[in-house]
Amino acid sequence: MTKGLIKGIEFVEIATADLATLDKLLRRLHFVKVGAHRSKAVHLYRQGSLNIIVNQETDAKLCLRNQASGSQIKAFAVRVDNAPTIYAELLSKGAWSCQSSLGAMELNIPGIEINGGCVLYLVENNHAHFSIYDIDFTNVEPVGVPTEIFSKIASLSLNIATSHTRQWQDFFTGLLHFTQQGDYLLSPDHSFRLKLITKQGDDIADEGIATMTFMQASHSNSADNQCTSQSSHYVKNIPAAIGFQIEVLNK
Questions:
Q1: pTM score of the predicted model
Q2: Which residue range is the domain that position 68 belongs to?
Q3: pLDDT in tens, 60-70
Q4: pLDDT digits (tens, 9 = 90+) for 164-178
Q5: Looking at residue 121, which CATH number applies to its domain?
């Protein structure tokens, strides 16, 4: 994969068996529902340029550690130039094609499997001419006017079994050209970071995407700052049904 082709995170996908709790969390973080899938129990939430896909399909629920309840981050997508070519190149170098039916969208977006059965999708970087959401989703009029308190998804942390640490570090640095930056791996375009967290033991059931970190946006008025403060407080009290952590970084 040619260096520099990653153009940031396009979306994060969360599988859920408890939509009410997850919806409440996202709304408290000032995300609003803007789309409903045409044929699936899948929802699109947005804040500014940040997209979160909520997958409530049965096959998504079966991938949860707690199948009775809970929500987990199961995938994220990066924007790239010439996704089919990059996908073929990654497969030729040993990446695993995503064989799961977890995918939330009808549009054929190439994906490769990463730790814990999660998926890394490759989305064509052509938003100026085409939106991947237009095909699969119908528009939902958002309730109220959302306040943009986050500027981007700054990082994701990945839980890794002890014996797999080197494997995944080599995967991201060797195949995807992330670079080591302290405890983090920096994306080729420097737009986001990954943190590999080694879990004691070799139980792959403990692997997965553990934390999503938002970058706080710059604000010029006290009302926006109050919204950010309230959201930062809320992420410290994540409901038990949410199987991942959320952090907020000051800009």
A1: 0.89
A2: 9-139
A3: 777 786 656 68
A4: 889 999 999 999 999
A5: 3.10.180.10
